[in-house]
Amino acid sequence: MASNHSSRPSVGRLLLTAFTLGLSFMALLPGPARARIRTCRRDPLVTLSNGKVVRMSALIGADTDEVQWVHYELHAPKGTTVTRIVYTGGVPCSDKEFVSFYADAAEGAYSVSTLVHVPGQTVQVTAYDAVNNAKQDGGGWSGQPVTVYITAEDKDRGPDKDKKDKK
Description:
Oligomer: single chain
Number of helices: 2
Radius of gyration: 28 Å
Largest sheet: 5 strands, antiparallel
Low-confidence stretches: 23-39, 157-167
Mean pLDDT: 78
Strand order of the largest sheet: 4-1-2-7-8
Number of strands: 9
Distance between the termini: 112 Å
Shape: elongated
Structural class: alpha+beta
């Protein structure tokens, strides 16, 4: 004996199933995301006695209030000194960013190690550093130094100066 009922589900049953699956999928999604301020963004500018200007900045995957401190360690050529440090604009955090300077590198060699401390968290850190127009970046994690190396010739050192030295 043949049945009058088809084996296809009704439209109502399909809609209910789709709705239930949609709710189930939404429950798996993470909650509302917090906007992240990517650091204090005071970007120290260090002017050196050889005329070079070193810009240091870091993008940090944490809110500003979660960052306890950012330490920039600048290594520059022997014989150079710091003539000025300026902290540029952005979100104020005057007590969170520090610069240490060491004149212990070879001529034209610069490095910046950026160390970020975010208590109880390991977050991504990207360091963006420049010596005049020579730029470099590097990535890592909070709690570990992110070191960037930059080569920048001194303005009184170049092909003509090298030729004079050889005479």
